[in-house]
Design goal:
The chain is an alpha+beta fold and 480 residues long. Among the domains are: 83-141 and 220-312, D-Amino Acid Oxidase, subunit A, domain 2 (D-Amino Acid Oxidase, Chain A, domain 2, 2-Layer Sandwich), CATH 3.30.9.10; 375-479, Arc Repressor Mutant, subunit A (Orthogonal Bundle), CATH 1.10.10.1100. It has helices at residues 11-20, 59-78, 94-110, 120-126, 148-161, 205-210, 280-290, 339-357, 380-389, 405-411, 421-428, 441-452, and strands spanning 2-7, 27-30, 47-48, 82-83, 87-91, 115-119, 136-140, 144-146, 165-167, 172-177, 183-187, 191-199, 219-229, 240-243, 253-256, 262-265, 269-270, 302-313, 319-322, 329-333, 396-398, 403-404. The protein starts with a strand and ends in a 28-residue tail after the last helix. The structure holds flavin-adenine dinucleotide. Residues 7-13, 30-33, 38-41, 44-47, 49, 171-172, 200-202, 204, 208, 224, 266, 308-310, 335-341 line the site of flavin-adenine dinucleotide (FAD).
């Protein structure tokens, strides 16, 4: 019997897990994929928004500003990449300059600090590559970029380190209420019984709720596509550059990433299902629209296209509430942008809801820190010291990102060991560079094979089913 069952291991479920694992209760997270952070949390703009965009009084406004402050603190404590680059919303006409003034006022109402309205010259002085049709900008100093999957991993790993059970490959298929008011949750792997349920199932949160409750909201996936450009393009933007928001969302952004790349996108297109395709027409639109903000981005330096799915609710806001039809079932739904920015504050509220139901005591011994070895950031002395202790740190596996065998092997001893090549990438950055795993992919596959005792035909690129080799061409291929 679990006290709390969390459904969904994205940033929202993981933030909830982090805060709940500080209390003396039995906690389990059920995740459909073979890793946390493998849904929308891994495919977005990675911006921790300042909070001037949501309408004052909305849940998005409330949680964004608080979440942004908490993310900054968590990054220090749990050691995930966070860069406070600041953002600019660019105006391309005098009418849009008026929009900037409205956003500034909204920001004040939402409690956003460190904002300034800039004219063209002031904007150009801090962002030299902006196009000449910029009329002015709204600067927000608290905006930042993070590694969203490392942020999520940091939260989930800390929860696991403090006793949470994580059940990957456990898609929830049914939920029923028992006579004693507890729930039985059925997954593709088994049954779990619990007192309280937190529904953090992203684009499927409505379906998960309807497994037991009445229809209370609808989630529509809204896809956004991106270009990820090589580090050679990094200096095209020093801040996250937005365009004025419209009914199509926050516009196409041009932003540095925490890993030193340049990200351009997204669009906003409603899709029927989990359609993560990237398409030539939309990418052409993204490129054209980004050119309004910044000139001279060299798209021959594109290293990857990808897309993510926003979970847009029919209420037009986050849904953070106990189900109206099922007591003891808490929905964290409609988690479209800015939910990455807001996740920490949302997790705190979910934790408070559980405590309002039952006063679980705080754990006496809670490990609230996490440190990662990032070999390339060490001094030569530190590197030598490490290699002396473990020669695996002297062998470079990913040449683009300078990631060592030692760092990769270490992840298999961590609280959530990787199960695929991309899971290694999310934990170490191996495969994130210009060659996108062309050099290191096979070497990472070999390490996975050894660490997990797999056959080559069982090695996954990412989610279940994405095997990298279908079958053996020769029986003795091990020796080829
Ligand atoms: C294009 C785009 C750009 C964005 N940019 C930003 C941004 O810059 N800043 C920002 O703040 N926000 C941004 N967002 C929003 C942000 O990415 C999401 O709000 C956030 O990642 C949602 O996290 P989540 O945990 O709710 O969902 P997810 O990360 O999708 O996690 C939900 C999890 O639930 C699991 N699940 C679903 N159904 C089941 C089931 N039946 N059983 C078990 N598990 C299940 C899924 O496998 C998944 O892992 C953006 C989103 C998109 C798409």
């Amino acid at each position: 019997m679990y006290d709390v069952i969390i459904i969904g291991g994205g940033i929202v479920g993981s933030a909830t897990a982090y805060y709940l694992s500080q209390y003396d209760l039995k906690l389990v997270m059920l995740e459909a994929f073979n890793d946390v952070a493998n849904g929308t949390t891994k495919a977005n703009s990675a911006v921790i928004h300042a909070g001037y965009d949501p309408k004052p009084g909305s849940l998005m406004a409330k949680y964004n500003v608080e979440g942004s402050r908490l993310t900054r603190e968590l990054a220090k404590k749990l050691d995930f990449p966070y860069v406070n680059d600041g953002s600019l919303v660019l105006a391309f006409s005098e009418a849009e300059v008026e929009t900037l003034k409205e956003l500034y006022q909204r920001g004040l109402a939402n409690g956003v600090e460190d904002m300034k309205l800039l004219n063209y010259e002031e904007t150009k002085a801090i962002e030299p590559a902006i196009s000449d049709n910029v009329h002015g900008a709204l600067y927000a100093g608290t905006s930042a970029v993070v590694s969203p999957w490392e942020y999520c991993l940091a939260l989930a790993e800390t929860a696991v380190r403090n006793g949470m059970e994580l059940k990957l490959n456990n898609e929830v298929t049914a939920i029923r209420k028992n006579e004693d008011e507890t729930f039985t949750v059925t997954t593709v792997k088994g049954e779990y019984q619990g007192r309280y349920i937190i529904n953090a199932a992203g684009i499927y949160a409505d379906k998960v709720h309807e497994m037991i409750g009445e229809k209370e909201f609808t989630i529509t996936p809204v896809r956004g596509q991106y270009f990820l450009l090589d580090k050679s393009q990094f200096t095209k933007a020093h801040h996250t550059l937005f365009q004025c928001p419209s009914e199509r969302g926050k516009g196409v952004a041009v932003t540095p990433t925490v890993h030193g790349n340049l990200l351009v996108g997204p669009d906003a297109t409603r899709v029927d299902d989990e359609d993560l395709n990237t398409t030539a027409d939309i990418l052409a639109y993204v490129k054209e629209t980004a050119a309004l903000s910044v000139q001279g981005i060299d798209y021959r330096e594109n290293i990857r296209n990808f897309s993510g799915l926003r979970a847009r609710s029919d209420r037009g806001d986050f849904i953070i509430e106990e189900s109206r039809s099922v007591p003891n079932f808490f929905n964290l739904a409609g988690m479209a942008s800015p939910a990455l920015s807001s996740a920490a504050a949302i997790g705190l509220t979910a934790k408070d809801w559980v405590l309002s139901k039952q006063a679980y005591p705080k754990k006496e011994h809670y490990v609230d820190s996490r440190r990662k070895i990032r070999f390339k950031k060490l001094t030569d002395e530190e590197k030598n010291e490490l290699i002396k202790k473990d020669p695996a740190y002297g062998r470079i596996i990913c040449r683009c990102e300078t990631i060592t065998e030692g760092e990769i092997r270490e992840t298999f001893r961590g609280p959530i060991p990787p199960q695929s090549i991309d899971a290694v990438k999310r934990r170490t950055n191996a495969g994130m560079g210009r060659c996108q795993g062309g050099f290191c992919g096979e070497r990472v596959a070999n390490i996975l094979k050894q660490e997990l005792g797999l056959d080559y035909t069982e090695i996954l690129q990412d989610r279940e089913g994405t095997v990298i080799l279908e079958k053996k061409a020769k029986e003795d291929y091990e020796n080829v």
